[in-house]
Amino acid sequence: MNARTAGFGTGTLSRASALVHTVLTVEALLLLAASPGLAGLLLLGPDPANLPLAAGCLLPLGPALSAALHALHHRGRDLTELHPARAYLRAWRLNAVPALKLWAPLLAWLTVIAFTLTHFAATGLPGWWALLLAAIGAGSLLWGAHALVLTSLFAFRARDTARLAAHFLLRHGRATLAAASLLLLTAASTALLTEALPALLAAPLLLSLLHGSRSVIEQTREDFTA
């Protein structure tokens, strides 16, 4: 084998091609895994009364996102050794139940907050309660971002993952700020452009989440794994 053949698949262009191939494959599989729920969302109207149904439709998205994070984190850099579909399907089988143990309660909690805010006038509560609920909802989403990364990459019990996610929420401010930036970008693109855009760009957004969560991942590996 000559030097040219031995170096195939390891150059800059090859690594870039490997990344694009992995991102596109993971994106397609993520949309496929979440498609039953996403299809249900398309049939629901914008009525606040449909919030519980929307939460039910979003249940498949949790395992789909978890598998995508795992596959992206363990992606191959060598163009000749790419198996993103295999990595995604394996991660979905392993992480579907652990992800749902955190994703389902988070969805239920966010649904309660959203339903309360959309019917806030009927509650008779002072206006500052709405701001408090919105802040709690935002904090819950940020906790969920950390929890999703942890449950996708580590085999902890659900309650331990929940505690670690809460621990890192304030301890790693940069990682939390990075997650907040991604959530704001997702919300803005949904409001200003189209609701489909975050779904179509899910894999690149998750790759950015992994990049922003490097400190959380490294400390978890060093301090909480054997």
- Low-confidence region ranges: 1-6
Helix content: over 70%
The total of beta strands comes to 0
How far from one another are the termini? 40 Å
Overall pLDDT score: 90
SSE sequence, one letter per element? HHHHHHHHHHH
Task: Outline the fold blueprint.
Elements: H1 3-6, H2 12-43, H3 51-57, H4 61-73, H5 84-118, H6 127-153, H7 158-171, H8 173-192, H9 197-200, H10 202-212, H11 214-224
Give your account of this protein's structure:
The protein is mainly alpha-helical. Helix content is 79%, strand content 0%. It has 11 helices and no strands. α2 runs antiparallel to α3 and α4 packs across α10. The protein is globular, with a radius of gyration of 19 Å. The termini are far apart. The N terminus is likely disordered.
Keyword list:
single chain; about 230 residues; mainly alpha; 11 helices; about 80% helix; globular; disordered N terminus
What's this model, at a glance?
With 226 residues, this protein is mainly α. It has helices spanning 3-6, 12-43, 51-57, 61-73, 84-118, 127-153, 158-171, 173-192, 197-200, 202-212, 214-224.
